[in-house]
Design a protein that fits this description.
This protein has 20 helices and five strands. By secondary structure, the protein is mostly helical. Helix 3 runs parallel beside helix 7 and helix 9 packs across helix 15.
């Protein structure tokens, strides 16, 4: 085990403590606890065991239940990860009890202070989850159970996770009614935690790139960047109305290389088996972004864990981007191509943007869109592109650090931009 792997495990352990501290903070707000700890909290209220001890026992129960959904092949190939859940469960339970002890002083007396405590707890929990995902070395038992059920029955990870959370909440309510003659531990705070943590994780995750160098083995980076790639690929990310597609057409004629944009629809349909009309309607957008955030609870979990139709489409288009880069020098519009090819050696990453009035004018005069419709389209499409990019990459869309060239097409003519990119292309091609 090298030092970079050790660092990943260290981050994971830290994330467990942060998660536990966040859960304790939410619980101490006395507005209900998080869905995953609702049962353990209720059990701790009428038994001699603590919330942490019950967390350990519940997670061990999950570990046992997983065996009923795993094949021998699954267990053989993943036995290390399976067994790792046991010490993780023990650590997490102990961290919860320690966090509850640390926060023994926290007793909010008013509803306002309870709300503040709840919000702080949700933020802390989101910070921990994002760090856990960044470490990417192990899963907690509840998440692993959802994962094996997903694989066994070919369901979407997010909806199975939702089903588990609802089951735990109902169990907590039943136990509470049976043993305490009322519902305890499940309140408005439980709903807030369920709805708020996921989106907060998505907001925080892009900033965790600061750990990349610390946890990534250098030779991996060298191997990735040294992959064969004689072809030169120009990727163009663009705000709607900035003329990114028009620029791509100019570059295609100027440099004599293929432009790929709308062609992706047919290619992705063949690659994924998804209907073309669905792709036309949903490509480069997250139709229910907030719901996706809530269901996934993270932004960097491998997509294979939660394959929705949107995820399948993204993977299909990513494979197409990689195939095109290997096949020929070309221009690719959108499709998160700058991220998909981030380790490709010969790439020119362009981002086109413009002021609103210039974008509006181009939409009306060049795209033939009515002014009222154009205003709405600019806001809607840009919002969708932001959500799509950030959901699947964990990076900030339009961050100048991700691109080789940022072009303000509101003040720079497309012809000028074309000549500039053409010069860069020819210099690389020498």
């Amino acid at each position: 085990m090298n030092k970079y792997t050790i660092r990943r495990y260290l981050l994971f352990i830290i994330s467990l403590f942060i998660n536990a501290f966040g859960i304790a903070f939410i619980t101490k707000a006395f507005l209900g606890t998080s869905p995953i700890t609702s049962v353990t909290y209720v059990l701790s209220m009428f038994t001699p065991f603590t919330m942490g001890i019950w967390t350990i026992l519940l997670n061990l129960l999950f570990v046992i239940l997983e065996l009923f959904f795993m094949t021998r092949k699954d267990l053989k190939s993943d036995w290390k990860m399976y067994l790792l859940q046991i010490p993780i469960a023990c650590c997490f339970g102990l961290f919860i009890d320690f966090s509850m002890f640390m926060l023994s002083w926290l007793n909010p007396s008013t509803y306002v202070t309870q709300i503040i405590g709840l919000i702080v707890g949700c933020i802390i929990l989101a910070i921990g989850i994002a760090l856990e995902v960044k470490a990417n070395v192990a899963m907690m038992a509840g998440e692993y159970l959802v994962n094996v059920i997903t694989r066994r029955f070919h369901k979407e990870f997010g909806y199975v996770k939702l089903g588990l959370d609802v089951t735990l909440l109902l169990t907590a309510c039943i136990l509470s009614l049976l043993f305490m003659s009322g519902i305890h531990g499940v309140r408005e705070g439980t709903v807030v935690a369920a709805l708020a943590v996921g989106p907060i994780v998505h907001f925080i995750s892009p900033y965790y790139h600061i750990f990349d160098r610390w946890i990534t083995y250098p030779t991996q980076q060298i191997e990735q960047t040294s992959r064969s790639g004689k072809n030169i690929v120009i990727t163009i990310a663009r705000e709607f109305g900035s003329g990114g597609h028009l620029l791509g057409e100019m570059l295609s004629k100027e440099l004599g290389i293929h432009l790929y944009d709308k062609e992706f629809i047919n290619m992705a349909a063949k690659e994924s088996g998804i209907d073309e009309q669905y792709i036309i309607k949903n490509e480069q957008s997250i139709p229910s972004f907030w719901l996706k955030c809530i269901l996934s609870k993270n932004s960097e979990r491998p997509l294979e864990d939660s394959l929705s139709a949107d995820d399948v489409l993204f993977l299909a288009e990513s494979r197409i981007v990689q195939k095109l880069a290997a096949k020929e020098s070309c221009i690719i519009i959108g499709r998160c191509a700058d991220f998909v090819l981030k380790d490709y050696p010969n790439i020119i990453k362009i981002f086109c943007y413009s002021d609103f009035q210039s974008a509006l004018c181009r939409c009306v005069t060049q795209y033939g869109i009515a002014r009222e419709q154009a205003e709405e389209a600019i806001h809607r499409i840009n919002r969708n592109r932001i959500h799509h990019y950030e959901y699947y990459t964990g990076k900030k869309w339009g961050d100048p650090h991700h691109y080789n060239l940022m072009l303000n097409t509101g003040s720079i003519k497309l012809e000028t931009a074309c000549r500039l990119i053409g010069e860069i292309y020819r210099d690389m091609n020498k």
